[in-house]
Amino acid sequence: MENLDVIVLKAISDWRAKGQAGILVTVVRSWGSSPRPVGSIMALCEDGAVIGSVSGGCIEDDLIFRHRSTEDTSWHTRTGTERLVYGVSADEAHRFGLPCGGTIELLVEYNPCAEQLARLILYLKNGKLVRRTVTLETGGVALEVTDCPTSLMLDDTVLVAIFGPGYRMLLIGAGQLAACLSTMALFSGFTVTVCDPRDEYTCSWAIEGAIVTSEMPDDAVIAFKPDRRSCIVALSHDPKLDDMALLEALHSDAFYVGAIGSRRNQNTRRDRMIEYLDQTEETMRKLRGPVGIYIGSKTPPEIAVSIMAEIIAVKNNVVLHQDFNVRIAKDNLGVAV
């Protein structure tokens, strides 16, 4: 499954390329609780088709009602932008399904340029981070490739938003756990690559949408070119494969590097990589293992849920309580391995 922003941008780009009117809506501010974070986007076509979301659904319904009216089609040729605020009063917050005290401000872009949208999508497909600046009065857009992610910015004249490529996952090992984890990652919007040089594992791989490679793991990590939107998880249970991948992954920009295995195996791996593979205490601190959060998981699907939950938490800068740490939880419970 593609990154949600890309899905929304593709939809409105296609509508506009076909000559259909459309609006692109961005959450630009929120006060109190709000259903969707700042930067969330949705698109609406003149025929009422909608993709993406800016709330739990009621605001989308209002936007459809506003722009699908057969009596007023003047917006079909309109350009520029409009700012809308929902939830100022308690009655309006209740009407639009906002939590108590929740208020959101939206920026509506009327009929954005199809060529600019296509160019933005191409940048994202090529792994670029893009700063998109919208001039509020005219709706004009400027795109600039950047290396510096920043928060959305809105003032009286412009909206500046950063769009980045989708998150990526590289899995080492094509076993049952990798199949479960890749399915969850794809559903969560990650692009998934699975590396396993063992034919007996890759020949039966059946997860549609995942890229499969049979090159050696260290070469796969180098070719993957990990960045700050990448995660790498070693799942093969074969030290010859997992350690090769980790040697490269631990020195990359990947936001998450993890390895399957018991506490005993993790200790052995740590000692082995420091003694024989020139790693240090500092480099090994980046390695997460035993991988995942502690939920008492036993089966491959449950373990995959555990791993995916930790990856998403790290991606979202959530600090997990130590009770969720597998090592600490098992130590406290007196689990042997």
TrEMBL record:
A Pfam entry, by short name: XdhC_C
Domain XdhC- CoxI span(s) in chain numbering: 15-66
Domain annotation XdhC Rossmann: ranges: 169-311
Name of the protein described by the UniProt record: XdhC family protein
